[in-house]
Amino acid sequence: MLTAILVMALGGLLLGGVLGWASVRYRVEDDPLVEKIDAILPQTQCGQCGFPGCKPYAEAISKGEADINRCPPGGEDGVKRLAELLGVDPKPLGEGLEHKPKSVAVIDENLCIGCTLCIQACPVDAIVGAAKQMHVIVADQCTGCELCLSPCPVECIHMEVVHEDVATWKWRYPVYTLHPTRPH
Amino acid sequence: MKRLMRSAVSNGLALVAFSVAGTALLAGTYGLTLGTIARSEQAKQQALLAQTLPEGSFDADLIAHTVAADPLLGTKKPGQAYLARKDGKGSGVVLEVTAPDGYAGEIKLLVGILADGRLGGVRVVKHKETPGLGDYIEVEKNPWIRQFDGLSLNQAPAAQWRVRKDGGRFDYLAGATITPRAIVKAVARALQYFERHKAELLAGAKE
Amino acid sequence: MTGSPYNLHVRYATPQIMRQLMLALLPAIGAHVWLFGPGILVGLLLCSLFAVGFETLVLLMRGQPLGFYLRDNTALVTAWLLALSMPTLAPWWLYLLGAFFAIVVAKHLYGGLGQNLFNPAMVAYAVLIVSFPIQMTQWAAPAQLAAHVPSLAEAFDLVFAGQGALSPDAYTSATPLDHLKTQLRTGTPMPKVMGQPLYGQVGGSGGEVVALMFLLGGAYLLGRRLITWHIPVAFLAAVAVTASLLQWHDPAQHAGALFHLASGGAMLGAFFIATDPVTAASTPKGKLLYAAGAGCLTVIIRAFGNFPDGVAFAILLMNIAAPLIDVYTQPRVFGTGGGKP
Amino acid sequence: MFTQEARDIVVNGLWKQNPGIVQILGLCPLLAISNNVVNALSLGLATTLVMTVSNGAVALVRNLIPHAIRIPVFILIVAALVTVVDLLMHAYLLSLYLVLGIFIPLIVTNCIVLARVEAFASKRSTWHSVLDGAFMGLGLTLVLLTLGAVREAFGKGTLLSGLDLALGPRAAAWTIHLAPGYDGFLLAILPPGAFIGLGLLIALRNLIELRKKEHGPHPA
Amino acid sequence: MTRPLYRFHGGVHPAEHKAESSGRPIATMPLLPRYAVPLRQHIGNPALPIVKAGDRVLKGQAIGQADGYVSTAIHAPTSGTVLGIEAQAVPHPSGLPDLCIVIESDGEDRAVDYQPLDWQHLDPSALRNRIRDLGLAGLGGAVFPSYIKLNPGAAQKIPTLILNGAECEPWITCDDRLMRERAEGILRGAAAMQAMLHADEIIVGIEDNKPEAAAALQAAAQQLGLAVEVALAPTLYPSGGGKQLTYLLTGKETPAGGLSTDIGVQVFNIGTAYSLYRAIEFGEPMISRIVTVTGHVGQPQNFEVRIGTPVADLIRQAGGELAGASGRLIGGPMMGFDLRNDAAPTTKAVNCVIVKSPALFPAAPPAMPCIRCGECARACPALLQPFELYWYARARDFGKAQGYRLFDCIECGCCSHVCPSHIPLVDFFRFAKDEVWAREREKEASEQARRRHEFHQFRLEREKQEKADKLAAKAVDRLKTVETGAADPEAERKKAILQAAIERAQKAKADITPKNVEGLPPEIEQEIADIDARRAKLRETAHAKDEDSE
After folding, report:
1. Do D68 and B19 touch (CB under 8 A)?
2. Same structural domain, C134 and C234
3. For residue E54, which phi and psi values (nearest 5 degrees)?
4. Distance (Å, rounded) from C-alpha C129 to C-alpha C316?
5. What does residue E204 show for φ and ψ, rounded to 5 degrees?
6. A109 touching chain E per CB within 8 A
């Protein structure tokens, strides 16, 4: 009996020692999970999730501080992919959040006073211009985050839905009859 | 470096503490149950053996001793025989018998034989027969194996130690004849073995 | 938005493929009736009725178009294959249970036509043989060996009312495969076993004629290009090779290639069951591998297993492996100059 | 004492996070030993006992366990408890012990035990941990019991056969014969029956959840 | 004729339906009052319009120029007035409108002064640019800008030139007729191609159901004394696929994801060769092509059609739709698509218009589940496993679908054609391909957004830092001034403080008016300049108004 206890104690000492050493030696500082979550988020940097950008939201998700259904631009599809990554059940978008069709901001050139406030608000530097100059939004770079709308003192910015055209059109998921067409 | 060492030592000691506590708990339980376990096992073994001998045919715990391997027992290694006693004299013996030709390999049996050469009972200890087909030899599934109770080589002549299909006296279930054939043969051989070694088996002198 | 609208001149649509399969089974059924009496017809009828019944029921429950799917004939094909693998004159509830497991469990629980991982008829067969080994091994005796060949009316009687009037010994016998195994286990040497009347010329009297008819039906399917040569050839070759190897290793304990090919479900399996496209491997190389595995396993299970025939288990086992086989045998794509995708 | 949290723990264990049919953990004993009611119940209760005590024990000392060696310590605690149960059963319930065989020591490796210890007991209060262990165990037992009952009923046409193994020979008479003359559907008792049975149970639960979602007063 | 042929895997034999239209000679469409020339006709970037509403144009005048490398020019089909550049119905499977230059014909059909190309003496690069500016693009269906394909590349040589006259799709006969009637032109074009590519041999691949076309080409070759091999390939769809024809004639497989030039082969449609002939001999841009109009029409026939001709007019010319017509198909029945709006104009890609009727094109029977019978795999000329692809495309598992080489599918439609369960397989593959591309684009965009956001954060941080540094420096300066003192320390100190405050205010003002005008692409700078100019003008007029009112 004493031998049993001694053997176990020795084993414990050894294993505990190795694990204790390894826990300090091989500590992983950065959480790669954040990167994976961030890669799924659409990078609109719109802040609708309540965090200042996609990366902070990703960090909050990885820490379990935020739910996965706070990102409207990602939509249901984004929630589903987050759920898959994290091994949890997908859920509908959170309250008050809804997925909108992809839009870009457009500045009304007749109203813009060149105040640069929207330039400072744009998280992806998609607005170009300088003080007292008309500002222009580069449509290709605009993520549709709407953050430039409220700072504008003259309300010259509005959102325009991006419509499908021949170049961006996609073949739809085939719909084909599984039911017999009734003869005559 | 210092941090590494400190972490190693503190974790090591913590695990030692838990190991010692756990082992102590186990050691205690082990000590407490040791006797009971031995007694239970003993009782279990005796109960199994007792199934192969009629009630009242013995009055003391059976005694195990080793018998050499014998083709009649179907064994290739020395096995056990258990001596039953009544009033201090050998009243019967339980043999470990193997039927080598089951449908799916060997069938291990316990064959209880009374001193007068009558069968006390037969029980299957281990087999690999097809479930639902050959496994009616288990007493829990079918009373088939009780057919042997009370039979002896004298009562049933050699020709009758076969299943009905082959002209013998033993029932079988349609579709599975190999298994009962194997058992009948093995039991008959065990009886022959008993006839040959009756004296030494019942003497139990090596006590 | 239609893509290629030219999807019209299909040689055989799926329902017709199934009809052709049934057509190809007819010679063997005929031979069976001639050699073993009309009992098999009762089985075919019952199995078909039960299978179509279950199919209807499940389709209704799943809210799928009834007429459309019933017309595809797949339930009937499954029923026939099952009835042909089961002993003739089995009790009616065995057919019912078999149809249930084939149609409801093996087919629809996996998603219905085209989605099943396992061959439905073989699943049903496996369930039945494992659960009811006694009933599943009472085969009708060949006409010239049986004391009495049940007429159609008697067959109905037997199936529904149980054995009743006739003792099973009068009209049943073990199949050659079963018998061979029993005899070998009890130590009868191989040549002596083969001399017994049950064995006929090659693989059991009567049995070899039915097997020949399956071969004929298979040849028809091949000729119509409804199946490719890969699976039957590989399957039968593997059976022959494995059997020959075993016989060469221990002639006293193992029957030869011809016996194995002509007995049990070898021919039925090779042409009609292993070739089920839904559950078989589908690349050319994969088909060869899949069928060779099934053939080899068939003989091994027959020789060493707990049940007399191994075709069903062998095919089910290879069904599991089929998707993996497909992954590793993808053919070279045009312009990739060899190597796997 | 039965706060909302405690109630949640109970519901989680028995239904929402049921280890057997939701988390699909601990399948090894679940499938191997569920061929009749008595076996299933016995193993289920043994597992419940281990889970309750180990959850409690871990929660009690959770603040003393260094993070780096928590897993070895958990396993140590669980293994010690399982061995105690094993020894006790060996001593006092030998027949049952022989039937359950290797599956008693295997409780150590049953992932549900370690999963609850790691996911719950190492973070929560002792009382809640005990509750969680008990009801997770009971949830598993419930599934085992259902599966055992279904398999036994279909496979043999009986219920509670083998009760004598646990309660002595007298209990042999308590076996319920559902349908006299029923030959039994062997597949249910054989291992494939366990898989099919478990699959059907999971399907049943999903069906119930689905119905609840469709007709429930609180659409999710 | 002795050339050994290599049979490619799979393929199908759909009913040919060639006789309907192949018997009549190519007719010319009369001049129409209006043409709409889509900017997007070829693969690559759409052409950039170089005319505006109200401009008068001549026939053959460039109205759009190539935009970037993979692009080519478009030209006015007749003389007239540009009505505008507007979104119009175009022949596209989506049915969505796209930008077209609409020209109203003036009825004179006056052409620009065509200048033949002195191709034997022109610098190769200059020659190719001229070909680009003449708008040449492949007429076989892919509409790839021809000038790119006529570049022999780094090796300065492409040994084998294949002319594709297989025309394997049912119904279509435009190439057949062209070969029969204009063989000499085709071969002259081919000779130019051979010279530009430095090719050793010219092989024409023709399916053996077009013996007249083959004979015509052979005769023409003899007449021209041109070494051209006319190979008759067995009739088997899709032998007219570039990769299939290459394999058929040379036994070489075009590498997956690669080009035929990788194996020293360049393939041109015979129609393209003919257009090249017209371009170099007469300096004529690509303003017309041969189009088969067939199916349920009064008189199926081939027409020489100006690019931009409304399909409705074309059908009317072929005797109009017969009673019971059930739709129109652009291209052949195997790879074509339904035309939603017959106001859509023909383009360089439109080789055939088929009017459907329920008898000729019955509605697709209802699809059944796939039973993995493998018919599709046996029919697939790309050696794919369409049923596996279908499985994953249907489940939207695009990663797996790509693993089964989704992008090696040439969408020939053989699999759909043979499927006993009537599954529209190709539709699924097109869906999957587009979805993969879309996701790729989305990923690209979000990656770009992430990078830009990171830079934005970095810039804010940097600006804050710089501002802080400057303030700190100022403070030190001020302290120094204060410490050193002056004649009137008190007044001096106050002044300094005041000065510092002013400076600080100015600095802060400069800081909060960040500029984002560095490193902009020229077109955006241009845009800003334009807008500012407009705004300035607006202000001026406003001022002017103000002054008026005063």
Report:
1. no
2. no
3. 95, -20
4. 14
5. -105, 125
6. yes
Cβ–Cβ of D186/B29 closer than 8 Å? no
Domain membership of residue C318 as a residue range: 202-329
A182 touches chain C (CB under 8 A): no
Same domain, C241 and C305: yes
- Name the neighbours of A, counting chains with at least 3 Cβ pairs within 8 A: B, C, D, E
Count of CB atoms within 10 A of residue C192's CB?
9
Domains of chain A by range and CATH?
32-86 (1.10.15.40), 101-164 (3.30.70.20)
Q: What are the residue boundaries of the structural domains of chain B, listed by start?
A: 1-50, 52-203
User: CA B184 to CA E550: how far, in whole Å?
Assistant: 132
D203 assigned to some structural domain: yes
Domain membership flag for residue D211? yes
Cα gap C174→C172, rounded to integer Å: 7
- Are C167 and C212 within one domain? no
Residue E111 has pLDDT above 80, yes or no: yes
- Count CB pairs under 8 A between chains C and E: 152
Same domain assignment for residues C34 and C157: yes
CB pair distance less than 8 Å for A178 and E450: no
> Is the CB of D190 less than 8 angstroms away from the CB of C130?
yes
Same domain, C133 and C271: no
Q: Which residues in chain D are contacts of C105 at CB distance < 8 A?
A: 196
Give the closest residue to E453 by CA, choosing from B122, B103, A58, B147. Answer: A58
Domain count, chain D: 1
- Chain C residue closest to D197 (CA)? C105
Number of structural domains (chain C) is 2
C-alpha span between C38 and E470 (Å, rounded): 107
**Which chain C residues contact residue B104 at CB under 8 A?**
306
Alpha helices in chain C (DSSP H): 14-36, 39-62, 66-70, 74-85, 92-99, 120-131, 152-161, 168-171, 176-185, 190-194, 207-223, 230-249, 257-262, 266-268, 284-304, 311-328
Which pLDDT tens digit goes with each residue over E197-229?
999 999 999 999 999 999 999 999 999 999 999
Please write the tens of the pLDDT for every residue from C232-249: 999 999 999 999 999 898
Quick check: B12 and A17 in contact, CB under 8 A?
Answer: yes
Indicate the burial class of C115 (C-beta count within 10 angstroms; 0-12, 13-18, 19 or more).
Answer: middle
Residues of chain D with pLDDT under 70: 1-2, 165-169, 181, 216-220
Question: What is the identity of the amino acid at E218?
Answer: Q
Q: Assess E52–A contact: CB distance below 8 Å, yes or no.
A: no
| Segment B28-73, tens digit of pLDDT | 999 888 888 888 888 888 888 888 888 778 877 777 777 887 888 8
Residue D149 belongs to a domain: yes
- C131 to chain D: nearest residue by CA? D186
User: D168 with D79: CB under 8 angstroms?
Assistant: no
Q: Furthest-apart CA pair in chain B: how many Å?
A: 88
In a domain? residue C197: no
Residues E119-131: pLDDT tens digits? 888 899 999 999 9
